[in-house]
Amino acid sequence: MNRRRKFLLASVLALQNSSFIYPSCQKCFSRIILVSKRSNCPKCGCTGESGNANYRYKLSLKVAESNKLFVITVFGSCLDTFFGLTATGLHRILKATLDKVQMPVTSYSNALTTKEKPKH
Questions:
Q1: Rounded Cα gap, residues 10 and 63, in angstroms
Q2: CA–CA distance from 31 to each of 24, 46, 65, 76 (Å)?
Q3: Residue 88: closest CA among 30, 24, 3, 36
Q4: 113 has pLDDT over 70
Q5: Are strands 33-35 and 68-75 parallel, antiparallel or unpaired?
Q6: Average pLDDT over residues 58-63
Q7: FRET label pair with 38: which of 26, 98, 112, 118, CA 20 to 30 Å apart?
Q8: Spatial separation of the C-alpha atoms in residues 42 and 44, rounded to whole Å
Q9: Would you say the C-alpha torsion 55, 24, 18, 69 has a positive or negative sign?
Q10: What span, in angstroms and rounded, lies between the C-alpha atoms of 16 and 63?
């Protein structure tokens, strides 16, 4: 991994990946695998409960500076200010919103079958 840091004043052309938060290991910050109610880090072997998973930002952007194109990736808590909350906080909001919006297919199909048919 390249550890050099540079200041870049550029225009954002595109978001490279629509998935910009990921569940992370509390020890090494690598992406963890969530299986059922458990989490496992393939890098350091740390395990835990999936409900206690922390999330981190990973924002990959295609940018242009003068006549040069770059793909840059920004990780971690430095994006908290940009989004206005932590990645874990954003994940909780997104999950709560999706839970409210989603209607189980069986409930929707039951509502259609029990609905009175219109009379002609």
A1: 6
A2: 5, 11, 30, 12
A3: 24
A4: no
A5: unpaired
A6: 94
A7: 98
A8: 6
A9: positive
A10: 10
Structure tokens at 19: 């998935």
The conformation of residue 50, written as its DSSP 8-state character, comes to G
DSSP character at residue 17: -
**From the candidate CATH numbers 1.10.8.50, 2.40.110.10, 3.30.460.10, 2.40.50.140, the one assigned to the domain spanning 11-96:** 2.40.50.140
Q: Decide: pTM greater than 0.90.
A: no
Tokens of 59: 């924002």
Tell me what the mean pLDDT of segment 109-116 comes to: 46
In Å, how far are 14, 16, 19, 35, 37 from 23, measured between CA atoms?
Answer: 23, 19, 11, 12, 13
Ranges of each domain in the chain: 11-96
DSSP state of 31: B
- Three-state SS for 30? coil
Return the number of other C-beta atoms located less than 10 Å from residue 44's C-beta.
Answer: 13
Of 7, 8, 104, residue with least CA distance to 64 = 8
